[in-house]
Amino acid sequence: MNQEIRMKTKHFYAVLVILGFLLIYSLSSNRGCDSTEQAALELQSLQDNRAAFIPNHKGPTIYAITPTYARPVQKAELTRLSHVIRLVPNVFWVIVEDAEHTSNLVTNLLMRSGLQDRSVQLSAKTPANFKLQGKDPNWLKPRGVEQRNKALEWVRQHMADNGGRERHSVVYFMDDDNTYSTELFAEISKIERNKVGVWPVGLVGGLMVEKPVLNRDEIVLGFNSAWRPERPFPLDMAGFAISSDLLWDNPQAQFSYEVERGYQESEILRHLTIVHEMQPLANKCTEVLVWHTRTETPKLDAEKQLVKSGKHSDTGLEV
């Protein structure tokens, strides 16, 4: 009898041990499932956040017009822009160099960035009497006039070769010294036919932000510009884009050497729209997606001394 009781007791403890192992395994498995589910949720969140910065590739072609000229920071600035454009599949880059001929530097940059099939490389030299000299301040003479007009000529011809105004597209003047969020191009893609889209621009005109001012019906009433607010369109070149059918219907719309300082934007827009008909974007003009930044002029005193001795630090390199 005692032996039988001892056997039953051993069986009882064995069952308890087995049940304990099963319980521990079950809890461990549940934690593993929870951990897997949590990891999946975190991955999905990261993907959603990333997608928020990459616009939908669908939509009208955006012709991004970039005037550029040879200077020490040219390649650096164009490289920065190329990285943005690579993320926005519906952008076609129109680069216009202030030169007699296109350069190998720009050609190489387009090839290395993989954008040679989504770009065109043009050249248009600024007339000597409108060229800045020596230490002239950059505001003394209008810049980019010849290059932007050359790009507009190309866009209009390209439209003519592809059915005129039948295919919806948008033109944006994308200077190479600004900073752009990829989200901006998702907004530009919303521009309707026969419309000029507008949005805020950061760090411009002596303000933290210049922006369109809307009424309760989301109609543009004007702009909060502090610099020469009497201009017909007191906004920055980075703060608007144009439905290309407007450019097709108004071939006289272009830039001019004859207008006052700060009036280039007004010069082209006066042919295309009025303030109240502009299309507000960027969440009713409450978000800043482009900034009027400028690269600091590099200090190259040591390089100048080297050049005087007949040498260059960048011999054999493209900087």
From TrEMBL:
Its EC number is 2.4.1.135. It comes from Aedes albopictus. InterPro entries: Glyco_trans_43, Nucleotide-diphossugar_trans. It holds the Pfam family Glyco_transf_43. It comes from the Eukaryota. Belongs to the glycosyltransferase 43 family. This is Galactosylgalactosylxylosylprotein 3-beta-glucuronosyltransferase. The chain crosses the membrane at residues 12-28. SUPFAM superfamilies: Nucleotide-diphospho-sugar transferases. It is a single-pass type II membrane protein. Keywords: Glycoprotein, Golgi apparatus, Manganese, Membrane, Metal-binding, Signal-anchor, Transferase, Transmembrane, Transmembrane helix. The keyword Transferase applies. Its cofactor is Mn(2+). PANTHER family: GALACTOSYLGALACTOSYLXYLOSYLPROTEIN 3-BETA-GLUCURONOSYLTRANSFERASE 3, GALACTOSYLGALACTOSYLXYLOSYLPROTEIN 3-BETA-GLUCURONOSYLTRANSFERASE BETA-1,3-GLUCURONYLTRANSFERASE. Pathway: Protein modification; protein glycosylation. It is found in: Golgi apparatus membrane; Membrane. CDD domains: GlcAT-I.
